[in-house]
Amino acid sequence: MHGPFFITLNKFDWKNMPTISEDFVACPPRFIMTHTILVLIGGNPLAPNFQTGTGRFFLEDANTGPGTCFLRNAPFLSLDRFDAFLLFAGPNGNNTAALPNNVGLFLTSDMHGCQFMAYGPDRNNLTVEHNNFIGDPTQYATRYATIQAQNHAVFIALRPVQNAQPAANEYNFQLGANVIGMRKADGWHFFVRIATTEAYGGTREL
User: What is the pTM of this model?
Assistant: First the structure.
């Protein structure tokens, strides 16, 4: 006759679970496969006072759908934080900034009709744009053509279209897109998650 049968379970350490911010920093391209980063803009009562520039942030569960999270300004003494350059997307403007090299992460608002571009002589000297022409969408093509005609050595773009099968530098604006950037050994690289209205979306480099 056999004695009692016991199963030993490893104790799960809830206190040391990685935060949403830590998950993001560990591998941003993988993170945005299952998460959408929302940057609230003015007029929303929950919107922080975001401005374009380098800041210290953390991510908070938005509880509004699968994987959605809010970008927040991190408290001064918070340990749950990361440094990044935020390109704020004000309405009806080009929203242009020189991308610095003193941080390793780039963020901008989730896009549902907006246009993203990064361009310059090399990946260490880039200008970034988050065009938001909500009042006149015809300006997206005009702005794209203007920058393309300047023949920059590095020219990266993500354009809004309504096609069911967008090209590599396009996305269906009805499904949304999330763009993030990372500094690597040779400079800045940008990744996009297509179809942010879905629970999961593949990530690719622009």
Answer: 0.85
